Prior knowledge:
- With 306 residues, the chain is an alpha/beta fold.
- The chain has helices spanning 13-29, 46-54, 80-88, 99-113, 127-133, 168-181, 193-206, 221-232, 267-303; strands at residues 2-5, 36-38, 57-59, 70-73, 92-95, 117-121, 140-143, 158-162, 186-187, 211-215, 237-240, 256-261.
- It folds into 3 domains: 2-9 and 194-290, 4-hydroxy-3-methylbut-2-enyl diphosphate reductase, catalytic domain (Cobalt-precorrin-4 Transmethylase, domain 1); 13-97, 3-Layer(aba) Sandwich (Rossmann fold), CATH 3.40.50.11270; 100-191, 3-Layer(aba) Sandwich (Cobalt-precorrin-4 Transmethylase, domain 1), CATH 3.40.1010.20.
- It is built from 9 helices and 12 strands.
- The chain has a 4-stranded parallel sheet with strand order 1-12-10-11, sandwiched between helices. A 4-stranded parallel sheet has the order 3-2-4-5. A 4-stranded parallel sheet has the order 7-6-8-9, with helices on both faces.
- The longest helix is centred in the C-terminal third of the chain and has 37 residues, at 267-303.
- The two termini are 41 Å apart.
- The model is unreliable at 285-293 and 298-306 (pLDDT under 50).
Amino acid sequence: MKVVVAKTAGFCMGVRRAMDIALDAAHKDKGKNGGVFTDGPLIHNPQVLELLKGKGIGTVKDKTDFSGSTVVIRAHGITPARRKELEATGANICDATCPRVTRVQSIIRRYSTLGYSTIIVGDEGHAEVVGLLGYADGKGYVVGAVGDLDKLPPLDKVCVVAQTTQDKRLYKQIAAALKEKYSNCQIFDTICHSTSERQEEVMSLCREVDAMVVVGGRGSANTTRLVQICQGEGIPTFHVETEEELDFNKFSDYAVVGITAGASTPQWLTKRVEDKIASYEKHKVGRIWSGTKGVFNTFVGSCVYL
């Protein structure tokens, strides 16, 4: 079995930066009593969060007194109101918001002060979208499909942005429909370049392989998007968080398997999945040889009596 791994698989710049900030904060806090916490999951990958926990990095829950502590703002960003809440706790704030997300926040804030309403094309309830809405000054709306546009009220001035991990093709469709509904709307291309490259590569890869494996957390929006894209290309797709979830029985009919991974999936996790899939051929050869050997021995044994 041939295994092809997408070149764009694994940590994006924003995730690497957030990890560096969090681990650096933990290193500086070593030996002190304050502790390092992230305001919600730093990224959407259970295995990485477990690794951070092992480094002594906790998660903000009900604790309110953070004097002497460090709180790291997650890569998805937070609302301005939440930032003020954290600052009021007395914590040292480390901002790990992805620069791509910060750009979208700035666009919304700027146009909000000019009296614009903001329409965010994204997943309602997702951490990034929740944070972005906080910059819309109460005039923000979230749409996830063209059909959602019917629920929008009449709006005068409209600013349109996308969740940075949104499907590029879907955003293009919704943006076109919004242009028809609000002819004077201002549309911004805010999908992360890394996200676009990842999506384009996986579409191309789907045409070269018999099946796709997408590695990443089930709570990761961009990983889920990759799964949806693969399925949309009509190819058998398997979403796994670790190599333990792979079932060899499901790969018996595939000669070439492609692997991609979400932006919050570490390289070592993708490599484990790759190695296990690659070992399937050895596994199969071993079984075939074992069976052939048995037949051969039976044949030789029967010849003794001829």
